[in-house]
Amino acid sequence: MKKNVCDVLAAYAASSPFYRTAGVSRDCFRSMIANGPCIKKHDLQTQTTLILNDSYKHLDFNLFQVSRTSGSSGEPVEVFWSQDEYFRSNMDLWRLRKKYYDIMPSDKCVSFHSILYNKSKPMLHKKIIKLNYGKILSFSKFNLSDQDMDYYLKEICKYEPKWMLTQPSVIFKILDFLERYDRKLPNSLLYIELNGEQVSYEQEMCLRNKLKVNVANLYGSQEVNAIGYECSHGNMHIVSDNVYVQMYDVAETENSISGSILVSNLHNRVFPIIAYDLGDRITIRKSNRCPCGCNSPIIDSIWGRKSDDIILPNGKKISPFLFSYCIEYLNSAMGNPIWQYKVKTQKDKITLVVYISNNFSRWADSIKKELEIKIFEMIPGAGEINISIKPLTDIMISNSGKKKMVDRSEQLKDPM
Known about the structure:
Blueprint: H1 2-14, H2 17-22, H3 41-46, H4 48-51, E1 65-69, E2 77-81, H5 83-101, E3 109-113, E4 117-118, E5 121-122, E6 128-131, E7 136-140, H6 146-159, E8 163-166, H7 168-181, E9 191-195, H8 201-211, E10 214-221, E11 225-230, E12 236-238, E13 243-252, E14 256-265, E15 276-285, E16 298-303, E17 310-311, E18 317-318, H9 321-334, E19 338-346, E20 349-356, H10 364-378, E21 385-391, E22 406-408
Parallel strand pairs: 3-7, 3-8, 8-9, 9-10, 19-22, 20-21
Antiparallel strand pairs: 1-2, 4-5, 6-7, 10-11, 11-12, 12-16, 13-14, 14-15, 15-16, 17-18, 19-20
């Protein structure tokens, strides 16, 4: 299998001017321990045409499937796929859902959204929307008040989903609402899949015991899709049919290896993602043994995935992804002027720091004005939110080495 992976990734690298220039070869994939990344988020933003496979450069970009993400780092990026390869990449995860939890694409699902896209364009924000020809009922995670929860729960019970896809922070808000008002999820719900944030074994057990459903954790990214998936025996296996995982800056113990994760997608020939630095650190168990029979490496822990609520000066809590939506909306309308952003929280003060491309420096005032309009449309009554426009050269990296969307310069106390 490793020989085949090496051949596949070497062929992808040879087809891309970006990787050819970087000298990426078959030898780069012989070991799980690597010297460092071949590509980073900044490269995805700035080197699109060089990353593209030579054979696809003449095609209209509108023909590609586009995955667009800002993620917890606050760096908007686009990744291009052929529709066939995007489908095959996602099917690797669907096979595991069926194997462990009897979940199929035809089963009704409830999810919670922040930013939804029509191709590469952000859609207008909606509190509730049906997706995938009615197979997914999705609710806004921007709106999670008790009144919203009451409405959501009624709609969920009418819909009778078999499974739910959500972030841990959202499901625990739902659980809190259920317990305070003595409400229940529908009996049709058999499985909850968690993604996007760190979750502990104790938190998963809490959900299983209180909601009486199967719970599994998915580790993935919009750039490469599924990376790790939790089997029915509680072990998160690397989805080896979809990605090849390596690490750098490693530390070893007798039973495990920890390091910064690099991921390579094994399906995307159009826009190869090879030894990509996600910005997370993981620990992989040296033994692959698991009662489920899967021999893929087991991820024991992940650092770096967390979505913190922001507390506004008026005491209201909001999701940081509200700012993501505003940024994505403006980027789509103005041709991607914003390359990174950060929400800085201090006592009685919130500042949205926006880093723009040098090509848009003359438009800084217009960008600020349009952002203000969109932010106050999305967050009415939020109070004063300062917007600071800065050039790319001022980008700062946190001590952890990862650029975070939310920077708590002075930790705010939870008024609850």
